[in-house]
From TrEMBL:
Location in the cell: Membrane
Keyword presence, Lipoprotein: no
Residues spanning the membrane: 12-35, 55-73, 80-100, 106-127, 139-159, 171-190, 262-285, 297-319, 331-351, 357-376, 388-408, 420-438
Protein's organism: Methylobacterium currus
Leader peptide range in chain numbering: none
Protein name: MFS transporter
Record Gene3D superfamilies: MFS general substrate transporter like domains
Residue ranges constituting the Major facilitator superfamily (MFS) profile domain according to the UniProt record: 13-442
InterPro entries: MFS_dom, MFS_sugar_transport-like, MFS_trans_sf
Pfam families given in the database record: Sugar_tr (PF00083)
Length: 463
């Protein structure tokens, strides 16, 4: 798989799997933009705390979904699970459009989170195992960063959906969820282009199916590129098993790869805290501190989301050339320094709504690449047989520690109306980013251009 040239097959693979992040970004951004609208008595009449609580329900669902479906992905395969998680996600999004009070909205956000959490584990596993090693870093960053392409679309759509002159306040936000759910159904068609991972098949005793899958992929790539593929180089002997016990999996993560586990956890906590703190509450910040009308938040969110998407796209190449450790440490560290400066200026009340947004664009251009690299790290530095569960565990722990607390904490800081109180929250996020940079520099793995098997020996490796 690693010797294959880039082809239309790989492009379809990236689109079929990455499009979920686009839709997730679309509806999560709509949630962020509709925060003030949901306080309207004509909508759900929620309080600021309830809006933060609903965001936390979504994150809790994502954590639980990641753990459950991460294990199922390693046990039953990547392909089966990313169909199931997509259906759960779409169901949760459509149900969110039909919510009638806080508890129904929170429950449906929980279900949506279950689906998206499972998608993280299954999709990142599939991408890493099907994309050639020389492209793996940039592709993984772009796929995870495509969330922000959807966020830009969601922010733009919110300008229309939340305009009371066009749509009733209680209908526009529901329509946004409904559109996202319908579009999600179309992804099922694209997913038929994605085969099961041959790496997963061979380690689970399905050698013949793995050989057929690889042969079909090779024929497809040769036909699309017009190139004759070089012969495969190297041999890796494995002892296949239908399943691997939790004891084997956690022994590898906690003992043999303890340093890697610490690294993945610190990176995930830092990025989860930052992004959940800012993007679940930015509509509230604009309204509370800058007096931006609730239906105009999208004007500021569109350029911010575009900057987030361009970061992984323009910087992703360097993660495969300059190298993982230098780029991951550099992007986390620079993000932390920029956020520190922004927190001070915000505390001094020297920003306007637009200058605040421009500061966020600069920060998140870099921080978005850093956040995507956290998922890349968790997905490529552990053995094949535990890849999906490793992604799930560190996503769950990182998001549980950083993501669940952040929306709750920041809604309280925003409600205080005190600039320095919110600036203190931003400074705490900056400290986490700098800590992540130092951890990456000390414990990071130079995985660029290497096969997954050479980065971490499979548990089923002979001997």
């Amino acid at each position: 798989m690693d010797r294959l040239p880039w082809s239309r097959f790989h492009l379809l693979l990236v689109v079929a799997l990455g499009i979920t992040w686009v839709l997730d970004g679309l509806e999560v951004t709509i949630v962020g933009a509709i925060g003030p609208v949901l306080q309207d008595k004509r909508a759900l009449g929620l309080t600021i705390q309830q809006i933060g609580g609903a965001a936390s329900f979504y994150v809790v669902g994502a954590v639980v979904g990641a753990l459950i479906f991460g294990w199922l992905t390693d046990r039953f395969g990547r392909r089966l699970v990313f169909y199931a998680t997509l259906m759960i996600y779409v169901g949760g999004v459509i149900a969110s459009a039909l919510a009638w009070d806080f508890w129904s909205f929170a429950l449906f956000r929980l279900v949506t989170g279950l689906g998206i959490g499972g998608e993280y584990a299954a999709i990142n596993s599939a991408i890493d195992e099907l994309i050639p090693a020389k492209y793996r870093g940039r592709v993984d960053l772009i796929v995870n960063g495509s969330f922000w392409l959807g966020a830009a679309a969601g922010a733009g759509a919110s300008l229309l959906l939340l305009d009371p002159n066009l749509l009733d306040p209680d209908f526009g936000w529901r329509l946004g969820f409904g559109i996202g759910g319908v579009l999600g159904l179309g992804i099922l068609f694209l997913r038929r282009y994605v085969p099961e991972s041959p790496r997963w098949l061979v380690t689970h005793g399905r050698e013949e199916e793995a050989e057929r899958t690889v042969a079909e992929i090779e024929r497809t790539v040769e036909a699309e590129t017009g190139q004759t593929l070089p012969k495969a180089d190297g041999i890796l002997e494995v002892h296949p098993k239908k399943s691997f016990g939790f004891g084997e999996i956690f022994d590898a993560m906690v003992h043999k790869h303890r340093g890697r586990s610490v690294l993945a956890l610190v990176l995930m906590i830092a990025q989860a805290f930052l992004f959940n703190a800012v993007f679940f509450t930015y509509g509230l910040v604009l309204a509370k501190f800058y007096g931006v009308p609730e239906n105009r938040a999208g004007v500021f969110l569109v350029p911010l989301a575009v900057g987030n998407f361009l970061g992984p796209v323009l910087l992703g190449h360097f993660f495969d050339t300059i190298g993982r450790r230098r780029m991951i440490a550099g992007t986390f560290g620079l993000s932390g320094l920029l956020l520190t400066a922004t927190a001070i200026v915000f505390g001094l009340d020297l920003f306007t709504a637009w200058t605040q947004t421009f500061a966020w664009i600069a920060i998140f251009f870099v921080a978005s690449a850093a956040a995507s690299s956290a998922y890349l790290t968790a997905s490529e530095i552990f053995p094949l047989e535990t890849r999906a569960l490793a992604i799930a565990v560190f996503y769950a722990l990182g998001t549980g520690a950083g993501g669940v607390m952040a929306p709750w904490l920041f809604t309280h800081l925003i409600e205080s109306g005190q600039h320095w109180a919110l600036a203190g929250g931003y400074a705490g996020a900056a400290l986490l980013l700098v800590l992540a940079a130092v951890t990456e520099w000390k414990l990071g793995i130079d995985a660029e251009g290497k096969s997954l098997e050479s980065i971490a020996d499979p548990l089923s490796k002979a001997g």
